[in-house]
Amino acid sequence: MSTRDQNEDRQFIALREMAVPEGNIFMDKQSGKDFERPQYKKLVKKLKPDDLLYIKSIDRLGRNYEEIQNQWRILTKEKKIDIVVLDMPLLDTRRGKDLMGTFLSDIVLQVLSFVAENERTNIRQRQAEGIAAAKARGVRFGRPPRPLPENYHSAYQRWKLGAITGTAAAKECGMPLSTFRYRAEIYEKAKLL
User: How many Å apart are CA 180 and CA 174, to the nearest integer?
Assistant: First the structure.
């Protein structure tokens, strides 16, 4: 498993080896989950017909099969640029501009897009299974809760008896109402045990 920085470094080195000037390298630092890509959008705007785009791997174009296919179509058909996928030399639109070359490139693209989406699905499933197994072993996730303020018990008791509102009790404890209610739920469950 590599860190995001190591992955970015490998991609940057691969592009430099292709003699791509640094000013022409666009790199987004978002995770694949949200896929907001301001740098990618800037790159696409800058592309002109007959430009050559190098990408490290096919999954740089999208999170799933449909998105990858759509971006490939936009770049090759609408923008009329050539694409070279460094991790997959078969995906080089400069080769085989005839019908057979285009056909083979499309087949390879479809297979690789499917593989990319399938791998993401498998990763998510393995991750979910790992989290479930860790929880079953008693591993706790997230930040540990802050300790309750010293006056929480008294504010909670007065709130429960209806002497003060939840808003007033939360304010006394120095926490938002939603946090006060959430902690009250936990507090009640702990008293039942």
Answer: 9
